């Protein structure tokens, strides 16, 4: 079954765009460059498929379970393609495929609850839940499969159909995922479209779309919200983060150093809720810098296909240029690289894992989202100063507090202005919990039952009790 509209049009040869392996910097394949005008037919078919798909929740639950199995069965092919186009180590790609299947399974078993409302009057009021229609899911390149599943699994189980658009940097694993899911889902219930802008902009503003669920950067999120305003579609935005890790003065540095390092550097730092700034008490600052720098200097960096590799390349050339630019700016501002600080020689988009110290607090590597393997470590003198600094950006995705006294750490975590605060680890999630950034980090709630209800609308039936 074709997953791409352009492949259905007789006589039309779809344009294609290059897909680059970030470990070599070379093109290794191509993907269809679908044009905005193709979306009318895609959305129209998604709308027609919705009528059948929304009818029976049992069919949907069964299909999502079958889909989860199919994803696992295709795990080797999906993981390899993901590593080739995204760059992450193969073991992490396998973990991402597993999380994709886990999301399908988790949401397969979720159902909205019908509720009766009583308010003392002799009336009967029942709240039921209805699907919305075709949902546009637009996702970035850092976790193409699991972020897509976090959108399409709740949307589908709720009875919606989905048009899924991956980033042009990582279209291929998603394309394969679409083919795999097509073996479990009725035709046109989930359609993958690939292409360069303005494909996403057109999808976000398409009048047939009833919910735009977007994960990506803050500026694009704003553009998506504006585009969706045209049709007044519901908008869910999961945007960037600049999470702070606040270390308390009773922290045991060596004990937490591995966890802290990987909370910042997993997926080469390209994680929305990675630790992007560390605040350490002044008396522990040098020890923290040393512990992190030692790990940054010795971690195995290389192609994700090499089983020794723990840290792959940055995903794409523009992102590498951004990482390099904020690092150079920090060094020009007076920072010192305790590890790294530069691109690595040779082919591919490799940047040396970097620990920065003596960074002025106003430097962009602190105030903006670096989204790469670069971590500033800043000293603080009072806890209030650290909390103010942690809360002092426009972001509010996550944050963490690290220390031995858990009550005290918990009290500091309470003061963080963010959606998720962790204690003694970071970026750990349960499928059953809500995920929602505050301030510029997001609008709406994903995850758990909240993610399901985000794809439904209430429908109320109200009558006199004696009618
Ligand atoms: P991006 O905003 O550049 O792109 C995200 C997606 O939007 C891509 O599919 C892109 O092709 C598409 N797009 C680009 N312009 C568009 C437009 N005008 N209208 C509609 N769609 C458009 O983000 P990125 O560089 O791919 O990803 C990195 C960003 O994603 C970081 O800021 C990161 O923090 C964020 N992110 C957030 C979460 C979260 O859950 N909060 C998770 C992962 C990544």
What does this protein structure show overall?
The structure is a single chain. The protein is of the alpha/beta class. The chain has 2 domains: 5-239 and 436-462, Aldehyde Dehydrogenase, Chain A, domain 1, CATH 3.40.605.10; 243-423, Aldehyde Dehydrogenase, Chain A, domain 2 (3-Layer(aba) Sandwich), CATH 3.40.309. The protein has helices at residues 5-8, 39-53, 57-73, 75-86, 90-108, 144-157, 172-182, 199-205, 218-229, 253-265, 285-298, 317-332, 364-367, 383-390, 406-413, 448-453, and strands at 16-21, 26-32, 115-117, 123-131, 134-138, 161-165, 190-192, 211-215, 234-238, 243-247, 275-281, 336-339, 354-357, 374-380, 398-402, 420-423, 442-443, 456-464. A 7-stranded mixed sheet has the order 12-13-14-11-10-15-16, with helices on both faces. A 6-stranded mixed sheet has the order 7-6-5-8-9-17, sandwiched between helices. Strand 6 (161-165), helix 7 (172-182) and strand 7 (190-192) form a beta-alpha-beta unit. The longest helix is centred in the N-terminal third of the chain and has 19 residues, at 90-108. It is globular, with a radius of gyration of 23 Å. Mean pLDDT is 96; it is low at 1-6. Bound molecules: nicotinamide-adenine-dinucleotide (NAD). Nicotinamide-adenine-dinucleotide is lined by residues 138-142, 147, 165, 167-168, 197, 200-201, 204, 215-217, 220, 223-224, 227, 238-241, 272, 369, 371, 397, 437, 442.
């Amino acid at each position: 079954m074709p997953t791409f509209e352009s492949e259905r049009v007789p006589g039309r040869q779809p344009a294609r765009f290059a897909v680059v392996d970030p470990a070599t910097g070379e093109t290794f394949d191509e993907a269809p460059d679908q044009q905005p005008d193709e979306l009318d037919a895609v959305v129209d078919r998604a709308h027609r498929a919705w009528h059948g798909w929304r009818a029976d929740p049992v069919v949907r639950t069964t299909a999502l379970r079958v889909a989860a199995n199919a994803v696992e069965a295709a795990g080797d092919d999906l993981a390899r393609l993901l590593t080739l186009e995204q760059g992450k180590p193969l073991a992490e790609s396998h973990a991402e495929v597993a999380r994709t299947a886990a999301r399908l399974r988790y949401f397969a078993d979720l159902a909205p609850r019908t509720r009766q409302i009583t308010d003392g009057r002799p009336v009967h009021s029942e709240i039921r839940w209805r699907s919305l229609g075709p949902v546009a899911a637009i996702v970035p390149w850092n976790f193409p499969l699991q972020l897509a599943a976090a959108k399409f699994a709740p949307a589908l189980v709720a009875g919606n159909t989905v048009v899924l658009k991956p980033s042009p940097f990582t279209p291929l694993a998603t394309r394969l995922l679409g083919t795999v899911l097509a073996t479990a889902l009725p035709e046109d219930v989930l359609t993958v479209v690939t292409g360069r802008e303005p494909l996403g902009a057109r999808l976000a503003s398409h009048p047939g779309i009833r919910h735009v669920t977007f994960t990506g950067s803050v500026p694009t999120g704003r553009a998506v919200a504006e585009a969706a305003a045209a049709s007044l579609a519901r908008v869910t935005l999961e945007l960037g983060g600049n999470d702070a890790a606040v270390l308390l003065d009773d922290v045991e540095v060596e004990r937490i150093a591995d966890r802290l390092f990987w909370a910042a550097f997993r997926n080469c730092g390209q994680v929305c809720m990675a630790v992007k700034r560390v605040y350490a008490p002044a008396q522990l600052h040098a020890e923290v810098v040393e512990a992190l720098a030692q790990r940054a200097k010795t971690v195995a960096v290389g192609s994700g296909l090499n089983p020794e590799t723990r840290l792959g390349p940055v995903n794409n050339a523009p992102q590498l240029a951004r990482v390099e630019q904020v690092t150079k700016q920090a060094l020009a501002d007076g920072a010192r690289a305790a590890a790294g600080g530069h691109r690595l020689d040779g082919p591919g988009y490799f940047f040396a894992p970097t620990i920065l110290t003596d960074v002025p607090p106003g430097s962009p590597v602190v105030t903006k989202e670096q989204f790469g393997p670069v971590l500033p470590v800043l000293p603080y003198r009072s806890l209030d100063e650290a909390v103010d600094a942690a809360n002092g950006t426009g972001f509010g995705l996550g944050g963490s507090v690290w220390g031995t006294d858990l009550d005290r750490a918990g009290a500091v975590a309470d003061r963080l202005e963010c959606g998720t605060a962790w204690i003694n680890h970071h970026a750990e999630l349960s499928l059953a919990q809500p995920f929602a950034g505050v301030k510029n980090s997001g609008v709406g709630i994903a995850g758990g039952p909240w993610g399901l209800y985000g794809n439904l609308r209430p429908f109320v039936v109200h009558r006199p009790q004696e009618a």
